[in-house]
TrEMBL record:
SMART domains: ENDO3c. NCBIfam families: mutY. Signal peptide: none annotated. Pfam families: HHH, HhH-GPD, NUDIX_4. Residues 38-189 form the HhH-GPD domain. This is Adenine DNA glycosylase. It comes from the Bacteria. It comes from Gangjinia marincola. Binds 1 [4Fe-4S] cluster. Keywords: 4Fe-4S, DNA damage, DNA repair, Glycosidase, Hydrolase, Iron, Iron-sulfur, Metal-binding. Its cofactor is [4Fe-4S] cluster. Its EC number is 3.2.2.31.
Amino acid sequence: MKNKNFTKTLIKWYLANKRDLPWRNTNDPYRIWLSEIMLQQTRIAQGLPYYLTFTREYPTIFDLANAPQDDVLKLWQGLGYYSRARNLHSTAKKVAFEMNGVFPNDYQGLLKLKGIGDYTASAIASICYDEPVAVVDGNVYRVLARYFGIVLPINSGEGIKAFKSLAMELIDPKQPGTYNQAIMEFGAMHCSPKLPLCHECTLRTSCFAYAENKVGELPVKLKKQKITIRHFNYLVFLSEENRTLLQQRTSKGIWQGLYEFPLIETEQEVFTEDLILTEDFQKHTHHLDPEIRLYNNKPIKHILSHQHIYAKFWILSTKRLIKSSIHINSLTEYPVPVLLEKFINVFLQSDYD
């Protein structure tokens, strides 16, 4: 009975309180898929402008599939987790060119597409095709853990299975899409991580965490992965003709497919004397004989989920650069990490001094 009341109350709350968002006014799998990929590990306030830009620039999956990857990455710039954008583009091409633009119409079929996991497949299948498969994301974990008093870690194998099983029991088979959106919206707006609105909560009379004063303790999560510290030294070449060098990150890892200045990564912070003695510096500056100066005396700290990057930008003035160099003003046309975007914006406004 508690399960049934939970589901019924949640849907009632949602229908009265849901936000008016563009992807809630459609059951087009392309639009739903796009919104779900964009909103993974991203707040709606941040993701909404990107969604509007993407749907304006690429109104159909064929438009997205036919776009150059660099254009897609440039449009994605600032949203982070760039593997999502690469997978998005890859899947768009598969659906457009191999499936005539038609998405699979069930959970199992959707799972076979690149970049679509349990959560996204469940969201699309339930919202677009009324398949009763439950979504489980951070919001869902939090609501279920608090309401039902579940202490299993949400990032453990046992916990993941238990939460998914419970979520499947709770879903309304007659309106699965509405239920899934309801529990996600409730977690985002009402049962929030740090300041939940418990005193005005429609579920508080039967909520375990509220009754036991354990709202702040749930959900349980295993200790975070160790943070890796990295030191990046970017070589910003600048010729007398205001040309510079840019290269694309091809190796797997952070920022794959994005562009950056020639990079020397060191184990610790280095200064001019140390940098110019490195083999990589000699390789990058061979025959150029540049004048070198440090642009930022204090390293810029850039925080990623499991990495902290400390970046220095070194300005290397030289007479001429190779033919593949680009004009400094065209830097804004390339998709780059936010760390470089911020530097480029300031640098271009400084007359390169």
